[in-house]
Amino acid sequence: MKFDVTVIGSGPGGYVCAIRAAQLGFKVAIIERYNTLGGTCLNVGCIPSKALLDSSEHYHNATHTFAEHGIKTGKVSPDMKQMIQRKNDVVSKITGGVDFLMKKNKITVFHGHGSFVDKNTVKITKEDGRTENVSTDRVVIATGSKPITPEAFNYDKNRVITSTEALNIDKVPKKMIVIGAGVIGLELGSVYARLGTEIEVIEFQDKILGAMDKDASKELQRALKKLGFKFHLSHMVTSVKGTKTGVTVEYKKRDTEDVQSVKGDYCLIAIGRRAYTDNLGLEKVGVAVDDRGRVEVNGHLETNIPGIYAIGDVVKGAMLAHKAEDEGIFVAEYIAGQKPHIDYNLIPGVVYTWPEVSSVGKTEEELKADGIPYKSGKFPFKALGRSKASMDEAGMAKVLSHKETDELLGVHIVGARAADLIMEAVCLMEFRASAEDMARICHPHPTYTEAVKEAALAATENRALHI
């Protein structure tokens, strides 16, 4: 069979690229090695983790805040099997929706492992070993990423686990050790901490969420400590040993030899992800990769081999579903002769703990390092009427603007619904607005968005109204 565009991988980047290419009139094929479409995000990542985060937050509120709200309940206990079942149902509905979109847009779907025969031929190897080839004018590599699991950590998928297995634990553990204080470790740690699991986090860096603004990191760490998290920052893990019933993790403070150990029911490895290009046949066509295994691309997301493109987690940049989607659209439109654009500085990042964390643009640390003159304004959620009413007082909004022009340079939010609040900042920054512009927009009262307005006022003239 002959196609105009063939996409290898059906995650958010891949399936969105396929849809956009089909909308633009191309004959499109998509190849997915697993039985369901949607990739990591829909099957074992973004969607199932958010389902469990919401379920665990409901349970935590029932056991911690309902009484204060005047809601009486009987004995409350978590039903992990039902939580997992609901999560699975959510995943099934959403992946089924992707199936529908493929049919609607007349995209041919192949299940099997895709690999290059040459730059215009892709071999599909099915589960039973049978193969078939497709001929194509262009190929988009959208194969995503896999968790990094060092040999010393003895990943066994039983007691030493990654996010994939953590989404299917059907009994609340007494204790879980989390290696890595990044997004995945803190989100999944939150799920189980709310259900009563003791969470102990070991992190090599000196702060949690290493890439995010330091004030946001500190604010979230305070909130997670109240939830029961225990942190070992500036520590490194030296070994992980799992048994049938538990784990032992040995670790030490950086630059020392004083080894300590901790035992738990599970050890969650959450130290990052690597580009997944295993057995893709890149060497057969000469596609270049960097020293971290990521596919190298130019400003049009095209590899060194004309007609072969790469998007999402397999290329440089933040491993975010929405970044992959935008890149998928970009490639489809570029192939069609359009002139798409992505501003990588304005791709928002979100952490779905509670309080949530969101960020766009530069951090204060980055501005200092680059020697950019800036102003900073902060406002605490506890000063908001909406936060008082909902009992969601943890968090703050922080606005960074240029000292001379007042142009917005970065916005960082920790608090209730921060994931949604950040879009105000993204929109304004896309149009190069100033902190004063943000402050002068009328924000509804009482809402969490008022924290952003007040932080902008603080950055503009140090004149926040409510503190």
Spatial shape: globular
* Rg over CA atoms: 23 Å
CATH-assigned fold name of the largest domain = FAD/NAD(P)-binding domain
Q: Strand tally, please?
A: 22
**Low-confidence segments, ≥5 residues, pLDDT <50?**
none
* First-to-last CA distance: 66 Å
Tell me the fraction of residues in β-strands, as a range.
25-35%
Please give the domain count. Answer: 3
Helix content: 25-40%
User: What does the main sheet amount to?
Assistant: 7 strands, mixed
Average pLDDT works out at 97
CATH superfamily of the largest domain: FAD/NAD(P)-binding domain
Number of helices: 14
In the CATH classification, which architecture of the largest domain applies? 3-Layer(bba) Sandwich
Structural class: alpha/beta
CATH level 1 name of the largest domain: Alpha Beta
Topology:
Blueprint (H helix, E strand, L loop, with lengths): L1 E7 L3 H12 L4 E5 L6 H6 L1 H19 L15 H25 L3 E4 L1 E6 L2 E5 L5 E11 L3 E3 L12 E2 L1 H4 L8 E5 L3 H12 L3 E5 L11 H14 L2 E3 L2 E8 L4 E7 L5 E6 L1 E4 L3 E3 L6 H4 L22 E3 L10 H15 L13 E3 L4 E6 L2 H7 L3 E7 L4 H6 L5 E7 L5 E8 L2 H13 L4 H6 L9 H12 L6
Parallel strand pairs: 1-2, 1-6, 2-3, 6-17, 8-15, 9-10, 9-15, 10-11
Antiparallel strand pairs: 4-5, 5-6, 7-16, 12-13, 13-14, 18-19, 19-22, 20-21, 21-22
Helix pairs in contact: 1-9, 3-4, 3-6
